[in-house]
Amino acid sequence: MHVNHRVGWALFLLSAALFAAVGVRDGDVLVTAASVVFGVACVLFLLPER
Q: Structure pTM?
């Protein structure tokens, strides 16, 4: 995977973490859950193919 792609996915992970933090701060369970799911999906895309 190219460096630019990894940086892009890292930024997606950062945004997921920030959205999750906002969801927790505001007590919004749906935003928090969706952010966690999005973050996990980003991590799965970063894993190398077998």
A: 0.79
